[in-house]
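User: Some background: our group keeps a shared notebook of sequences we're curious about, and every so often someone picks one and asks for a predicted structure to add to the entry. Today it's my turn. The entry only has the sequence so far, pasted here. Could you supply the structure so I can complete it?
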Amino acid sequence: MEKTIEWIKTNNFGYSKMIDQTQLPYIYKKISINSSKDMYSAIKSMIVRGAPAIGIAGAHGVILGAIESLNCDNFVENIKKIASFINSSRPTAVNLVWAIKEQLKVLEKNKNEDRKTIIDLLIENAIRLENDDIEINKKIGEYGSAIIPKGATILTHCNAGSLATVGWGTALGVVRSAFEKDKTIKVFADETRPRGQGARLTTYELTKDNINTTLITDGMGAYFMRKKMIDVVVVGADRISLNGDCANKIGTYMVAIAAKYHNIPFYVAAPKSTIDPAIKSGDEIVIELRDEKEVTTINDKPICVSNVNIINPSFDVTPGALITGIITEYGIIKPNEIHKLFTK
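Assistant: Of course. Here's the predicted structure to add to the notebook entry:
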């Protein structure tokens, strides 16, 4: 399986290579990231996006910081400063924090080794995280496929597919695994304004896989639910609190409310690394505010008057009470039982 993001090893340690998701679906292009500043920009500008993929980008950013620090007096401390810089690129997705911590554990454990050995170990760990991500997603897909009825129509929001991960996907991993068993399943993908990840990315992925996909606007979900044309909702997540509240792309909360009213199961598919045990409820999750131009323009063309007020939160929080289950690599868990994953 081709990876959305991967570390390419060379004689000079290597570099990060990723799909430029700002160009899709018009242009498929992979770019190389060779510096920690470029990695920060790639995450911030959403060249790489999706919580698990952002996490891997953070792990790669630590490697790039280590390479840049090779001849610095304070090698370890300099890497930590660069890691903190990378970590500040996007505040909501906890996978970024998690993956950077995984790299810093390697750094701390081996800080007395020579510098080149430390970099090699950081590279080895990052590649392990990449490969683990694919295997975790396939487990999520397998567990999730069990809750998809035969011939079902699945509503998705945003993109939680291979493009949001290293490969396979979380929510779309569930779709892919279900499709392997039942070729009659269908997907409704909402557009997911303002950046259109559903329109641009989810439809791109699913049509490539020959999965029957219908694009709808963000305001149409409840209409099709009322018409009994949607059987189940599956979305991803960027951070999950200990009580099962889930932060995901803006608009997810609205979909969950509509699904609850129409008695339609609403599932969140996410790895354990997306759960933040330090946060008790969704009220504590920091919501990223993004550039107003994302709302006021499409393809760089204005769609509204220039003097209107704009607020552009990138995420919202869906309360656990609206969520039927959270599909993880450990199985499907009720939101109020998330804590059990951290007591085993």
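Suggested note for the entry: The longest strand covers residues 15-19. The chain has ten helices and 15 strands.
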